[in-house]
Q: What sequence folds into this?
């Protein structure tokens, strides 16, 4: 909490004239979503600035372009709230609601935020798939959904856990961070393929 507020006060020079959101971040999207994307946490100068998940930074640029190609977003970029972006059949949220130092949430932050994410996903009555962006989100989703399988399902790009009564399917992708996209660990084709699989699991025609 202190970190997100400090960032909002001190600001990056490029955004010095902007008013940062600087508060816990809600998810957003289509209330009738069949696919929920679960990220890590708001970026300090991205969503913590704009007030919308994955908006205003390069990770978001990469993700929204893929959602647009998959037919899940109305436009390929999102720069700020109110820019016209709408999601179709998708909802975006995060395991942690406040921007953490160095983009590394603590276990305590995760556990404090889990009940909020749990209630949020429970409100999506048509939900069929949770797409976890990164290992942190994968682990959080297993906890949120009460997956008690042993051995514990391991994270890997493209990993899946089938749906069960009262629980959506889980699908995993590398996080669209610059660390992954600039190095080629996650390519456009890889993310496109995961989204095609998510649509299939969600029962899209």
A:
């Amino acid at each position: 909490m202190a970190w997100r507020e400090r960032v909002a006060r001190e600001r990056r020079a490029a955004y010095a004239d902007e008013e940062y959101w600087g508060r816990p971040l809600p998810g957003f999207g289509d209330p009738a979503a069949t696919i929920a994307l679960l990220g890590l946490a708001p970026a300090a100068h991205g969503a913590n600035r704009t007030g919308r998940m994955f908006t205003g930074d390069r990770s978001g640029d990469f993700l929204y372009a893929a959602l647009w190609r998959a037919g899940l977003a109305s436009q390929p970029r999102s720069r700020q709230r109110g820019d016209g972006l709408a999601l179709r059949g998708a909802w975006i949220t995060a395991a942690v609601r406040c921007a953490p130092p160095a983009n590394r949430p603590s276990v305590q932050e995760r556990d404090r935020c889990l009940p909020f994410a749990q209630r949020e996903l429970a409100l999506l009555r048509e939900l069929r798939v949770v797409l976890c962006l990164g290992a942190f989100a994968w682990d959080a989703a297993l906890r949120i959904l009460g997956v008690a399988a042993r051995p514990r399902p391991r994270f890997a790009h493209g990993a899946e856990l089938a749906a069960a009564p009262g629980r959506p399917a889980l699908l995993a992708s590398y996080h669209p961070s610059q660390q992954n996209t600039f190095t080629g660990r996650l390519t456009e084709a890889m993310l496109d393929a995961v989204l095609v699989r998510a649509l299939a699991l969600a029962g899209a025609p």
